[in-house]
Amino acid sequence: MKIKFYNARIMTAENDCSIINGEIHIDGDKIRYVGEEKKEDSFDREINCEGNLIIPGFKNAHTHSAMTFLRSYADDLPLQEWLFERVFPREDKLTPDDVYLLTKLGIMEYLSSGITSCFDMYFFADAIAAAAADTGFRLVLCGSVSGDPVNAERVHKEYLKFANGKYNELISYQLGFHAEYTASLDLMKEMAKLSQSLKEPVYTHNSETEKETSECRERHGMSPTALFEELGMLNYGGGGFHCVYFDDNDMDIFKRHGMWAVTNPASNTKLASGIAPICRMMDKGVNLAIGTDGAASNNCLDMFREMFLTTGLQKIREKDASACDANVVLQMAVKGGALAMGLTDCDCLKEGKKADLVLIDLEQPNMQPLNNIGKNLVYSGSKSNVKLTMVNGRILYENGEYYIGEQPREIYEKANKLAKKLR
Hints:
Elements: E1 2-10, E2 20-27, E3 30-35, E4 45-48, E5 53-56, E6 58-63, H1 79-91, H2 96-112, E7 115-120, H3 125-135, E8 138-142, H4 152-162, E9 171-179, H5 185-198, E10 202-206, H6 210-220, H7 224-230, E11 238-242, H8 248-256, E12 260-263, H9 265-270, H10 278-284, E13 287-290, H11 303-318, H12 326-340, E14 357-360, H13 373-379, E15 386-391, E16 394-398, E17 401-402, H14 408-422
Parallel strand pairs: 1-4, 1-5, 6-7, 7-8, 8-9, 9-10, 10-11, 11-12, 12-13
Antiparallel strand pairs: 1-2, 2-3, 5-14, 14-15, 15-16, 16-17
Helix pairs in contact: 2-3, 2-14, 11-12, 12-13
């Protein structure tokens, strides 16, 4: 389908957060033109943006989409009670059909928040992939195994099935395991071997809590990051989710291997895990991206809130109101996330790139006056400003309506029935 967006403000995010006036032409799944007004006929649809803003879609660089069933079920509890008494026992009851449904619910929230792709770490990879394929959403699966070394074979099988768009052009795959504290040393060694044989990066939860990090030092005499490097797991890069308790050596390792630190400020705030040293990572030149984590610990899959917290918490941590510039945070949310997830053709709005974009409504009081549109997205923007979300050239959300192959009411009813059963 050929679509023309015209009379638009456009933030390409190719190099910075500057804005141009013009139009974007979509042909199939790709962007064919970005620039000034251009007379051309034969579009299937022409959309007058009325001076509103088009940006690349946000990339949710760490989440567990199917955890939507735990939203507001286990709130205001200590971390260990939340995890071991509320979360794990109910996750054990999930079936692939449950994960398929719950992932669809998560995708709906992503679309209404301007998120066009996510890096999803959960079990039943086939069900997650099917939900994304059926709704038209772009998804990067992340291996999530734990326990014994034999489980590395599952990651290998998933990689062979999903990597490089083999299953569906919208689905890709990155090697990963849950965390150091849930994996045996032999499993981590197997993951390192798998990474080396495939020449692929590895991703995992890393230094999310002080307890996790200190216990790793007791077990192995070093931080999780240093352990992964010693095992040869980082030779081809990768990344860590959370990265709250990082010291300078951890950051140097990430920088040395070109790795990505994915911050999840809402989840880390709600669970009192801590504030990641983002400003120090910036000073060290560490690659940075942003994720929401799952709805059990967040509870809102909203990149606007994540952006605000990313910069706001750094100002508190550093005791410096100028810390963590909002424009840098905006780049983390769109371009950084894409590169962290391996989506090099979705990082900006440019000819030949994938048509993953969002139309932002500037004609609302929270966006006026138009002093600095980019920074206002971070400090004042909200889901209410998302008019349209396009993934791979298809409009999946527009003016409150979803075009994902199923009616929202049907998904809500099924999700509520399932949540009641699991309770």
